[in-house]
């Protein structure tokens, strides 16, 4: 593997040095003293992530549950990756393989990696620091200053991670569950299966700040989760004999043929619909693209998506 080759990888499979650089990129994106990582309204690139998710949902966007879920989050991940590369051009938005325990994530023949240490992504909650109502605890060092706005007694990101690996369908099951269906129904079946696994990992496995989708993007670990969701979509798209899944007019099947479907509507808040700066008249950065846009149909490069 080559640092800077543009490939998103299992975070456990890259070198320790690159993992540290990846971790540090989140700090750099939230550096209040650095004007180059701030929008003109004074919000850091990192803090804006939660606003994007919150304003999109408030504006009626298909952030959760519907057919545009995968495309909307691919746009979110792609944009964050661009910002990560603005502070460290050689990095990619790597992922956590959710078929593994994040405290013992496999990396081939080498010993597994614990992603929830204070040298990496912070505690999994079992230290119980600033515990509220007897559950979980702050992520702490190195993300001890990453705030949350949940309003439930926690002021900094916290976790309450279950032991072991998530009790969800295997990647193989998720990737092949739609195969018996007709092509015009396959996306709907696959999307439902992938979202079911995603929902479990959010609310029943990681829990803590990530439990509530409305606040989950305060915690950097949520992007490791969503990069993995996107990897599975990419792998489904590039499955052997299924090149039609790379065709914007065919991938969504009957859903894509419905003009009222969310996959045929501009994705917000980037389209300006939520009036969130800078994707509003004052910021002048709004862009109208649907889930069928070429940049969202073309999968990012992953180490295991073909």
Summed up, what is this model?
By secondary structure, the chain is mainly alpha-helical.
Q: How many β-strands, per DSSP?
A: 4
Contiguous runs where pLDDT drops below 50 for at least 5 residues:
none
Number of domains: 1
Annotation field: number of helices: 7
* Outline type: globular
Largest sheet: 2 strands, antiparallel
Helical proportion, percent range: 25-40%
CATH superfamily: Di-copper center containing domain from catechol oxidase
CATH topology: di-copper center containing domain from catechol oxidase
Major sheet strand order: 1-2
Radius of gyration, in angstroms, nearest whole number: 19 Å
Report the sheet-strand fraction.
under 5%
Task: Please state the average pLDDT score.
Answer: 94
Instruction: Provide the structure class.
Output: mainly alpha
* N-to-C order of helices and strands: HHHEEEEHHHH
Any idea of the CATH class? Mainly Alpha
The end-to-end span amounts to 16 Å
Q: In CATH terms, what is the architecture?
A: Orthogonal Bundle
What does this molecule look like?
It is a single chain. The protein has 306 residues and is mainly alpha-helical. It has a single domain, classed as di-copper center containing domain from catechol oxidase (Orthogonal Bundle), CATH 1.10.1280. Helix content is 32%, strand content 4%. The protein contains 7 helices and 4 strands. The protein has helices at 16-29, 45-58, 69-87, 171-176, 183-206, 221-237, 294-297, and strands spanning 105-107, 110-113, 137-138, 158-159. The strands form 2 sheets. It has a two-stranded antiparallel sheet. A hairpin with a 2-residue loop joins strand 1 and strand 2 (110-113). Helix 5 (183-206) packs antiparallel against helix 6 (221-237). It starts with 15 loop residues before the first helix and ends in a 9-residue tail after the last helix. The mean pLDDT is 94.
């Amino acid at each position: 593997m080559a640092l800077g080759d543009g490939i998103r990888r299992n975070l456990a499979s890259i070198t320790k040095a690159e993992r540290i650089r990846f971790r540090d990129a989140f700090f750099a994106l939230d550096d209040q003293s650095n004007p180059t990582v701030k929008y003109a309204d004074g919000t850091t690139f990192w803090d804006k992530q939660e606003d994007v998710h919150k304003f999109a949902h408030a504006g009626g966007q298909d952030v959760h549950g519907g057919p545009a879920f995968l495309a909307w989050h691919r746009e979110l991940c792609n944009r964050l990756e661009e910002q990560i590369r603005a502070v460290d051009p050689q990095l990619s938005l790597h992922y956590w393989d959710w078929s593994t325990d994040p405290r013992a994530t496999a990396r081939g023949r080498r010993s597994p990696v614990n992603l929830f240490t204070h040298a990496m992504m912070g505690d999994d909650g079992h230290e119980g620091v600033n515990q509220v109502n007897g559950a979980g605890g702050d992520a702490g060092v190195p993300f001890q200053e990453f705030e949350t706005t949940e309003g439930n007694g926690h002021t900094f990101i916290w976790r309450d991670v279950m032991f072991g690996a998530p009790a969800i369908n295997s990647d193989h099951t998720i990737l092949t569950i739609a195969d018996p269906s007709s092509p015009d129904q396959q996306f709907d079946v696959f999307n439902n299966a992938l979202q079911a696994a995603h929902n479990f990992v959010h609310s029943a496995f990681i829990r803590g700040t990530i439990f509530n989708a409305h606040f989950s993007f305060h915690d950097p670990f949520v992007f490791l989760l969503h990069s993995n969701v996107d990897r599975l979509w990419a792998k489904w798209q590039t499955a052997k004999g299924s090149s039609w899944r790379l065709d914007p007019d065919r991938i969504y099947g009957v859903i894509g043929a419905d003009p009222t479907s969310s996959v045929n509507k501009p994705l917000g808040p980037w389209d300006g619909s939520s009036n969130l700066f800078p994707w509003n008249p004052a910021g002048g950065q709004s862009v109208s693209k649907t889930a069928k846009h070429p940049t969202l149909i073309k999968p990012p490069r992953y180490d295991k998506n073909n």
